[in-house]
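Repro case for the chain-ordering regression, as requested:
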Amino acid sequence: MLERVQSERTQTDRTMIEIRDVTRSYGSFKALDNASLAIREGEFFSLLGPSGCGKTTLLRMIAGFDKPTSGSIAVDGQPMDGIPANRRPTNMVFQSYAIFPHLNVEQNVAYGLKRLKLDAGAEKHRVGEALAQVSLTGLGKRRATELSGGQRQRVALARALVMRPKVLLLDEPLSALDKKLREQMQVELRRLQQAVGITFVLVTHDQYEALAMSDRIAVMFGGKIAQVASPKEIYQRPVNRQVADFLGGMNFVKAEIVEENGASLVLDTLGFGRVRADKPRAFVRNGGAATLGIRPERLRVLWDNATAKFEVSGKVVERHYFGEITHLIVEIPGLEKPLSVTETNDFGADDIPVGAPIRLAYDPEALVAMAD
Amino acid sequence: MTAIRRFLPGWLSSYAVLYLLFLYLPVIFLPIFSINTAATPKFPLSGVTLHWYEDLPRTPALIDATWNSLIVGVSASILSTVLGILAARSITRYRYPGRRAINGLIMAPLVLPEVIVAISMLLVMLQLGLSLSLFTVVLGHVLVCIPYSMTVLTSGFEGFDRSLEEASADLGESAFGTFRRVTLPMVAPAIISSLLVCFTISLDEFIIAFFLTGTEATLPIYIWGQLRFAAKLPGVLALGTLLLFASFLLMTTAEILRRRAARRTQNEGGLYA
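-- result from build under test --
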């Protein structure tokens, strides 16, 4: 799995990008619907969502390639209305990388510097510095057409970073790379962001990518921002079923609200009985019904005579082997849908026979209440 | 079956040789007879000479025709390439209703019978009250050159990644600067290729020039006029040989440039390691 690079937080409390009530309509279709967002200085921020959710539209509006139909965008306190892309303090890494094929690596990186009219020595120094930041030192004379996918991506990064932007925008920069290279680049991108301290805004549809790299994530659906929070909170405390579903497997259990107060909910379920769960911040009650969620890895198989304070029992109906883990589908009496359980294989979960009775332990802390 | 299979490769290669002979034998006769000492094109050659080539620059009518052809060729190629750039850019860059129909209509002169086109153009010119001159020939040539220009240019523009221009703007460059530093260098080979192709077509074109020219002959018309005199034949052959080589050279250069342009625009995003 992906390792989250632990390091100093570079973010401050200052707002770097302020998106206020931004809507972008194409005829009657709203690509972005009244979105508001504040991105902090020095933050690694991700816009996460399925294709067509408006994340790329929002990024392109920050860059200046698209205009909001209504609402405003400010970067570093300056309103961006009417300011074209070439005069914004932002730089972008394009999905296709957009490396100029008629120029070599050095010329690509120096492209934007030419307009600053630096003296030759200073320009050379900055290009060298940028190439070193992305580990491309020595490849300056390489033709753009002779580069591998990973190298092209690094050139695109260096070309943007060399401009010392206030904000670096990344449009699905890793989607064209193969899995192994992608995971390596996730770690490197995060490390790079920590080193330069620039605000990064990443657009991605890959939830693991967003979880692994970001300080905060905005999850978007259908032009609306569903939740803005840290990766951990997004994963563990999704505000609704859509967000929960998009960020990996989640078991959903029908629940009945028994009691609602300031911070918590008491819910009745058929499989898990009466439980108390944190009330999500944006909880909007919809009658008496709610949904209770639990991630498959938060259900633990109880072996032999082991007991737990909180457990459910049922029967294994399917077993899928995935190398380091086994995925079990467990039928629980009273639940309309069987539970998904992922268990590491160190204790022999891969040997549990289909049809066997099974007991599962859970931590009530892992139960998430969601609006229905 | 096996017998046929064994026979087939040999048969196929002789077929290929015959095929190429059929295509190029007539063309090969041209240079061969142009260095013959005798005026009648007959084997065996009576002797080898460059006499006919040496005579060429000493023929004033020929010099005039060459100048006329150059003027027409350069004007027609520039005009049709400019018009081609505009159309090709619009066709490859934007999506709008009627795009395919417009493309088809622009390409259509390629398959219209040239005699008919020439007669219709003549009628139009006369209706417009234009007197026949090199200018009318240029207009006629633009008409036949545009489809070729379009073919070359669309293949060069196709797949031009729009994000390249956005990247340039993103890096601080103005619209004009982007055109100068990104768009133009990337499509330049295609543009030069189009100029060469159009020039070559105009240089060799006979029918339209024949109908639309006034008293000023272009090279093909000069050649046509010379064919009435048997004694002038070797000179015509020598001139023809030169034209042949010039066309071949121009077209090869054009094709190399076209491929380079296509490669530049199309490998973007490729080559993943």
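Ordering looks correct now. Residues 179-196 of chain A form the longest helix (18 residues).
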